[in-house]
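pasting for the record
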Amino acid sequence: MIQKISFGESPKVNNTIKINNESKNVEKDTNSSSTVKLLGLVALAATTLGGIYYLTKGKKTSNLTKKSNEFVNHTQEPVPLKINEQAQEISTSNIPEKINKKANTELNEQPPKSLEEVVEKPRKEEIIDTEKYFTGVRTRVDKETLSTIVETFKDGKLIKRAVSIYDEELGKVNKVTTFDPETGKLVLQEIIGNTYDRNYNIIKSDVVFQKEAFNEKGKLISKYNQDNGPFTIWKQLEIYNPVTGKPTSNYYCAVGNLHVRNFEADGDTIKNYISISGVKTENFDEAVELYKKYIPLSDNEIKKLYRQKLENSEGISELEFRMIEGNHDLRFDTAPLTSEKTVVEEHGAINGFNNRVREFVKGEMKDPDEIKYLKPRMDKIDQEMANLPPLEKDCVFYRGVADKYISNIINGQIGDVIVPDEGYAYGAFHRELAQRFAQTLLVIRTPKGAKISRCGANGGEVLYPRGAEYRILSKNKSPDGQNIIELEYVLPKTE
């Protein structure tokens, strides 16, 4: 549900991550207990896998090597999504369809329901184009879990191994691994989890899906995940530095937002973070490719492109506009420093009595007792605002509002200086936190030296002084029709 709020109200978002040792609030979905249990089963499957080999020759192997070498030379964005498709193609290209089909049939057969039914099937050799293939099937019992292992060999070399684990609650989990026999290194690893009933009928397929791609040295370069579980649907792409094995970037999509995180060289510290609204899970792959398309642009180029598309969005999709916007914001929307000294005591509480402040300023408050109570409270806040340390740099903050609350902005002209709110006005550090509430999005350019209350609450939030003035800089529309109005906070003369 979309919440519409007035210019003086404050949006609430309440989850926290750590960025450069500062707390930042972002949306985050939690996985179900079934997913956690599934990961435990995947770990069990991993223990059954030994050295596995996959034969790739000629150009296809060299193509993968060439691609993989590209990844080593990048520190931030080394892997396109298409590498997963390429690894998928290579992993099956030298295994005849007839053999693959037979192995898949064996893997997907109903498992034995008890130890007494476990029978190891004999290997049957087949000759295709003078090359010998055979598929071996065996079953492993570990406590109450039955695992079926299907191995495919070519000329006596193991080229593919698939493991199915059967669990009463989760049903079946498949893990398929292929290797290059000439290097002994991984090419592709896939994990698929299906939910079954007690009769092994599929209730829901692809509940959890994971695909890992490796370079020619067997180093992990990307991991693609999706979960279509009962509580949430999400997709995630993680990109790794194949030399250090540390993550370099992460794309995560759920509940209509694409989250992009880039990491420092240690792989643990988040270098920067942006959350982009308007991205559905079904558009995840396209959104990531579009986002990555604009990464090579310089700061000046992305700033110019964003301004062009903001002023004329004809011929560009809403999704692509959001990805350009996200690239722009990641580079230019740097949050201000925050501490206990940069925030007024009643920063959050003001939202609860801001309407009464407006009534007082407009002369509409008649109750003398209420006036007697409110005026000293306002004076204290105003004095605290005046004593705040000034902003150390130019910043941009965002406010999502309904048009009915900002008629003087909507009707104003470029260059006009207006007072849109007689009370105290909130703003967000990041566009996405304000955009979801917005009929109109206010982009508030705030100059160095401004004395405004700021803290890390609600994903990063500022509070402007009572009755603040703003200059209208521009008015535009995004491709989906949202008003985007740029304002400049006008420093009071005393500052």
